[in-house]
Amino acid sequence: MDTIASLFSFITTPVSWVIVQFHKVYGAIFGADTGWAWGLSIVSLVILIRICLIPLFVKQIKATRAMQTLQPEMKKIQERYKNDKQRQSEEMMKLYKESGTNPLSSCLPILAQSPFFFALYHVLNGIATGKTIGVINDTLLASARKAHIFGAPLAAKFTDGSGKVAQLGASLTDVRVVTAVMIVLMSASQFYTQRQLMTKNVDTTVKTPFMQQQKMLMYVFPVMFAVFGINFPVGVLVYWLTTNVWTMGQQMYVIHNNPTPGSKAQAAYLERLSKHVTHHGKIRRRSEKTIVKAIVAKGRDRNEFERKFINALNKAGLAAQPDGTVVKSEVTAVATAEDGTTTVTGAAAPKRQQPKRQSKAQRQSGGAKPAGGSEPETSSPSLDKADEPQDAKPAGAAKKAAQQPGGGTRSRAQSGQRKGPQRPKSPSKK
To answer: What is the rounded CA–CA span in Å between residue 21 and residue 42?
Structure first.
C-alpha cells in the first residue's frame, strides 16, 4: 500500500495540502480537533473539485445529448450489420467522426474525479493506520484521529472490528449506525439523480437501447455504492455523499434551465418561457435566446413542444427571430395614425367584395345607369309589341310574382345576378 501511495504522491500531496488549508480555517472556528473542522474540510475539497470540473460537466451534457440524437442512426447500423460486428464497429466510428461525438465524453467527470477519490482514500487510510502522508505531519495526524462525525471517527469503516474502533476512541455501535445511514443516503441520492434524469430529461419520442441501458444503471449504481460503501472510511463516505448531493443539485439546475429537446422538462420549460415572453414581450436571458434560436433553426423538424411554443407566440402577436429574439408579428401589428384611426400593417390582402345589391327599379329596368347618364338599351330595335308572346302576363301579375319569395326577378337577383345592364331574353314561342 505504501508503494502504491508513493507512486501516486503527485496527487495525494496536493489533496492533503488542500485539506490542511481548509482545516486551518474551520479549526479556528470550531476547534482543531473537532469533526466539524475535518468534515467541512473534506466537503470544501469536494466543492472545489466540482467547481473545477464544471467545464467537463458541460461537455458531458453535450455528449449525452449528441448520443441521444444519434441513437436512431446507431440502431439502423446495428440492424443492418448485425451479422458483421467488425463492419458494425467501423460504421459506428464513422458516425461518431462525422457528427463530432465522443462516447467517452459522458464519462469525463467520473474519470476526472477518480484520482482525487483515490488520493483522499489513501490520506484517510493513513490516518486510520497512524501513518503520515502528504503534508499531514504527526500533529495533524493526532488531531485527525481525535475527530469524530456524530460519534464515528473519520478513518473508521463499517467492517472494522471492535478492537480497531476502540483504538480510535469510539464504539462499534456508533460507527455501524453512522456508516449505515451515510451509505443509505449515498445510494438514495444516486438513485434519485439517475431517476430524475430518466423521467424528466430524456427524449421520450425515441425508444433506443441507450434508454434501456440508462434504466439499468439507475438500479445498478445504488447497489454498487451500497456494496462498496461498507469498505469506505467515514471521511470517504462524506466525500461521496457530498459529491452525489452536488451532482443532484447541478442536474436539477440543468434540467430546469436547459432541458433535453423532446423531454418532459422541455415541455415545462417552454410553457414557462411562453408565459414570460407573452407577458413581457421580450426575452431577457442569453440562455433563453440560445434555445429560441435553436428552435427557429429547426424549421419543420421541431418537436411537438416546440411547435406549441411557436404557435403560442403567434397567437400573442409575437414572432421568434433567427437570432433568438422575439418581436411583434407584422401580420397582427396595429399602427395608430395621427387622426386616431388604426390600420393593420402587413396584413393579408383584403377579401373580395360582394357586388352591391340592386334596387327594385334597377332590376325592373335591367340594370343601373352607366356613368355617362345615358340609358342602356334594354331591348333590341327590331323587337316591338307585335313580337310579344300571346300569353304574356299583365303588369299586376308580374308585380305580384316579384313580391313572392323565390319567384320572379327578385329570386334571380338573389341567386347571383350580374350587376349592370342585362341582356334581354328572347320571347318564348309556343
So the answer is: 11
